[in-house]
Amino acid sequence: MIKVIIIGSGNVAQHLIAAFQDSLNLGSEIELAQVFSRQTANLSHLLDYDKITNDWNALVEADLYIIAVSDDAIADVSSQLPFKNRLVVHTSGSTTLDTLDDNNRKGVFYPLQTFTKNKSVDFKTIPICLESENATDFQLLDKVAKAISEKIFAINSEQRKALHVAAVFVNNFVNHLYEIGSEICQDHQIPFEILKPLIAETAQKIMVLSPEESQTGPAKRNDRAIIEAHEAFLSNENYLTIYKTLTQSIQHNGKKL
């Protein structure tokens, strides 16, 4: 059995715990040996207490230690590990390999997905981006990743930085636009539910067409009458600025403005 320890109790940590537990139930050779959390009660619904510790010195020996904490805590957490020459990885999309402490072998185990507590995900479909300092460690990461996902990619730190920026555009920014759309609907007593089939079709279309092929709307058509009417309608200056910026970007087809 390959023994894995997860350090952390946030969204990513909890989803990883659930994924490894599920994989073990399906006959995987990966054992979730222990989880470290300063607040052990945060994990009581996922694990037996004998598998949770808040004492660095109580960490058991494992083949892989996965640090699943906020980006700004990775360096501090990795420096507190009371051992040397073990394989230690983080789960961040925007943090380099070098952030990890030099006492141990370094790697990255980055599941590219938006995680929310109490919202289950099918981990088998989630891309996991891997990086390590040597081929042997990569093979171990690859085996662990394949126990919980069918989509594994070798991505270096520079590529991962680009990927994370791209993810912010297609996820965080898009979700913020949903929020704006929802607020516009609320302000005019319109059920946001009416927009959900459009949102679903937009997401589905990108699975079979390129983003460029999928683009529709007044900006794509350069329909000035509709664009100007929309701009006149938007009394919220922030929304108006976003509308104008995105319209201009679409009209330049992604080229520098």
Secondary-structure map:
Elements (H helix, E strand, L loop, with lengths): L1 E6 L3 H15 L4 E7 L15 E2 L10 E4 L6 H6 L7 E4 L14 E7 L15 E6 L2 H12 L4 E4 L2 H31 L8 H10 L5 H4 L3 H4 L2 H10 L3 H15 L6
Descriptive notes:
The structure is a single chain. With about 260 residues, this protein is α/β, with parallel strands linked by helices. Helices cover about 40% and strands about 15% of the residues. The protein has helices at about 10-25, 75-80, 135-145, 155-185, 195-205, 210-215, 220, 225-235, 235-250; strands at about 1-5, 30-35, 50-55, 65, 85-90, 105-110, 125-130, 150-155. An 8-stranded mixed beta sheet has the order 3-2-1-4-5-6-7-8. Strand 4, helix 2 and strand 5 form a beta-alpha-beta unit.
Q: How many beta-strand segments?
A: 8
End-to-end Cα distance, whole Å, is 54 Å
**Number of H/I helices:** 9
Could you describe the largest sheet, including whether it forms a barrel? 8 strands, mixed
Q: Report the principal-axis shape.
A: elongated
**Unreliable stretches:** none
Coarse structural class = alpha/beta
- The overall average pLDDT, rounded, is 93
Strand content: 15-25%
Q: Largest sheet, order of strands side by side?
A: 3-2-1-4-5-6-7-8
Question: What string, H for helix and E for strand, traces the elements in order?
Answer: EHEEEHEEEHEHHHHHH
Brief summary of the model shown:
Helix content is 42%, strand content 16%. It is built from nine helices and eight strands.
Question: Which key phrases capture this entry?
Answer:
16% strand; 9 helices; 257 residues; alpha/beta; 42% helix
